[in-house]
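From the pipeline queue, job 12 of 40. The input is one protein chain; the requested action is below.

Action: predict structure.
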Amino acid sequence: MSDPTEGVRRMMVNEINSNPGEREALEKVQGQVWDTQQLGQDFDVMGFMAPFIIVRQKSTGKKGTLFFQHSPRFYFGWSPDDE
């Protein structure tokens, strides 16, 4: 099965992970940041396709997207879907 987004996603993964930020630095650039435990407290994970993760926010029920970096693993850039 061909994925038309694969090339763009690979470039984004390389960019995000070429200089992964520690939490404090990432928060300055991205705002709120979640580690894996915090992600599970605030969101239900529906699926992922690096560098994106599809989630449902537990407090509001809104579906949306986060980015993630591999190591150290942090999630950031919460963007709720327009429903």
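Job complete. DSSP finds three helices and five strands in the chain.
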